[in-house]
Task: structure prediction
Amino acid sequence: MRKQVQKERCTKIKLEKCPRVCYLYDKVQLAAARMLNADPSVIQIECNIPLSPDEIPADDLYLPSETYTTDFVIHFADGKVAVREAVFRLHLSRPSVAERLELSRRYWQQQGIDDWGIIIDRERLQNETK
Result:
């Protein structure tokens, strides 16, 4: 989950399973989009879906008045819908990231989607070069 208005560089990519051009803001989001596009059980991917401020749970109104987006809404061949947020492992310990992830989880649960998860970059092994 990230702010809707991004002031950083992004990668624009057209994926077979995404009806629009995807704007991807980091390597984790790019890798996740490619992974989801290659998954045969996925029939459609939606990127950067805005969360409606009117539907954010009332006890979350202390958050800034900015609009946030969910990284991926995934539609599977069996009719199920899932939501995934892409996050760097290093950022998981930040309180602001944890708050946004929890907001996203609760928002989508309120929308009737219980299959919510986080996609994290892989952990580097000690002998791997950086």
Observations:
- The chain has a mean pLDDT of 82.
